[in-house]
Every structure is written in C-alpha cells, then in structure tokens.
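For reproducibility, we list the full input for the S-adenosylmethionine complex.
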Amino acid sequence: MSVTVVEPERGGKRGRLEGAALSDEVLDSSPSVLRSGRPGAGTRGLQQFFTPLQAARLVRQVLDPSGRLAVLDPTAGNGALLQGWPEQLRFGVEIDADQVKAGAYEAITGDLQRAFPMLVKLGVSFPRVAANPPFGLAWTDGAGRAESSTQGAWRMSLALLDEHGVGAFVCGRDRFAREILPREDAAGVVATVECEDLFDGVVLPCLIAFFLKPENRLADAPPRLELAARRDELADAALSASIRRQVEDCSDHVVSCAVECNRAQWRLLDRELDRRRRAEQAARQRYDVELRAGERLSIRPGPFARAAMAKAGRLKLVEKLHNQPVGHFALNALIGGCSASCSVTASSRSHRASPRRLVRSRRARSAR
Ligand SMILES: C[S@@+](CC[C@H](N)C(=O)[O-])C[C@H]1O[C@@H](n2cnc3c(N)ncnc32)[C@H](O)[C@@H]1O
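The corresponding predicted structure, in tokenized form, follows.
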C-alpha cells in the first residue's frame, strides 16, 4: 500500500530531518531514516505523524475512562496520543528532543531500541500502553535480527504491558495484517477499528488494535471484534463502550485501579541514556574521515555530512570506504590520471580488481 501525502503537513516534522531530528542517535537508529519514502519524495525521517484528537479520545475511553492509570507511549512524539490522561500519569520514550520539549509527559529521550532492554532489566511495566510508532523504518531486535519499526514497537509494547494490562496500537491496516496478525503473540488482539482517513493528508487505511497479553485472554473468549469508523466517528461513546465490553468479555482479570508508578526507574534510565550519549559523543572521531593507525580509513561522517551525502546519492559509496587501506588510493594514483569519483569507484571494488583489470576497464570505457 503506498502512502500519498495530499495536503501540507500539520503537527510533526513528518519525514523532515531538522532540529534535534538530525542527530547521530537518530541517524544510527535506522538506516532507512535517510532513505527516500517514495520516488522523488524527501527522506523517510522519523515518520512524525501524530495521533489526531478523535483517535486519542477513543483510546483513552477504552483503556482508562476514569483517567487513573499510568500509560506508556513507547514512541511518544509530542504526546498527542497521551493527551487525555492527567499529566502525571503520562510516560513516553521519544528520540527527537524537540518533541520531548513540546510534550507534557515524563520522558526518556532516546532510541527505543536502546532504552527497551534497559527497561526490561529494571522490571518496568505499565497497566496501559498506547502506541503509534513509525510504521516503515528498518529496526533490529536485541539479537541484531532485522525487523520493521511496526514489529519492533509491537514486540516492545507487549513486553512493557503489565500482565493484566490493556493496550492500543495504531498501525497501517495492511501492514498489521501482514506483519502482526501472523505472530503468535497477536492472540491477545481482542478488537480492531479500521479507519480510512486517520491522518491528515495521508492516503493510507489504518487501524487501531486493542490488545491484552495473550496469556490473559480467556480460552473461551469471543472472537476478535472487527469494526470500522471514519475519523470523525472515533470519539463516539457507543464505539468505545462496545470495545470496552469486548475487553471485559475476553479476560477475567484486567487491572483497573491505580498501581505503583515507575517514575524513579524511569528517571534513572533517562539519566543513564544521557550519560552514555555524552560518553559516545566524546569518543567519536573528530573528523568525518580519519586515518587509523596511519594506514586504514575510518569513515564516520557527522549528521550533516551524512544527510548531505545521502541527498547526493553518495552515502553508501563513501561508507564502503570504511576500513579500506590507503594503499588502494596509492594504487589508483599509480595507474594515473584518475578523477576523484573514479578512484572512489575503483577502491571500493579493489579487493577483487587487480591493477591490470582496472587499467583494462578504464581503457574499455574510454574506447566507448
Ligand atoms: C508516528 S509518530 C507518533 C507519535 C505519537 N506516538 C503520537 O501518536 O502522536 C512516531 C514517533 O516515533 C518517534 N521515533 C522514531 N524513531 C524512534 C526511535 N528509534 N525511538 C524512539 N522514538 C522514535 C518519532 O520521532 C515520532 O515522534
């Protein structure tokens, strides 16, 4: 399913990498951040499409109508999805410090992929989780295996949900069917609401899934409730009431009274991530390209250089030079008269190409 932006954006930066969204941590979080979303479009960026008010209302009405429970948004943006909860109960992880500043929630600033294993180690969980992650970024799980940001956010949302908690997950409809429903842990999905026009200016059918931990769903629970609504109908009281009834029918035990908050661990982790970020920043090499031990190239461009090279379509090529011995450049110089772009091409292939082959291929090219 393609995503078409038909109106100017409102709310987040969408795919634009600007301000705090252009940082080492952001660019390291996913190789697809710098890739183009569609032919001719800008970068995919952090996919900052914030939850509209009507959807946030539905989620709050289903998950916690009396607003007494702590709620986590694992990729919280400016806090749009959490807006119905009292401020002291809102918790969020967000990688873009500009959005953290704009949002009124207890924040961990940083990459969810880095924060998650540490949250698990601290035993943090929430009675309510509400997520609207970036849908199509390339992330990795803790073992280095590739997964989409939808799969990663689903896995982490479920893991951070209290054993008797309830969650809501906003996602592209077709992606949800393809990437989430076939998973074993999708057994906890008790209801979905499809919405064709969820995000302003984006043509992409979405859905909101309501879920429990799979093990908290009764064996004889009713089948998944599948509903559809337009954005304007999402805040309808009858809709939230029917989903709430379904949640109650699917479990004997859903936590609904205030539980102890994780605030102390939360702040501890935010400080720890900040400490690590500073240490890494201090240890980063000073120049975009350096010679290591006098003989190998170390290519570590900063955020600006990476964004500029990606725009020029040169980033992958330059990154291939990382760890190459400088001898390859000397070889090219010996062969003589080579342009800068030609020597880049030759040295990036130079493990396989002998000087003779390089000379031959250059002759062949000039003969054409
Ligand atoms: C689709 S927006 C939704 C924001 C918010 N959940 C809402 O519903 O309005 C996704 C958010 O995820 C953030 N994000 C992207 N990659 C992230 C990462 N690796 N770790 C934490 N947040 C990330 C983006 O900056 C953006 O604010």
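DSSP finds 13 helices and 14 strands in the chain. The chain has a mean pLDDT of 87. Both points were considered when choosing residues for closer inspection.
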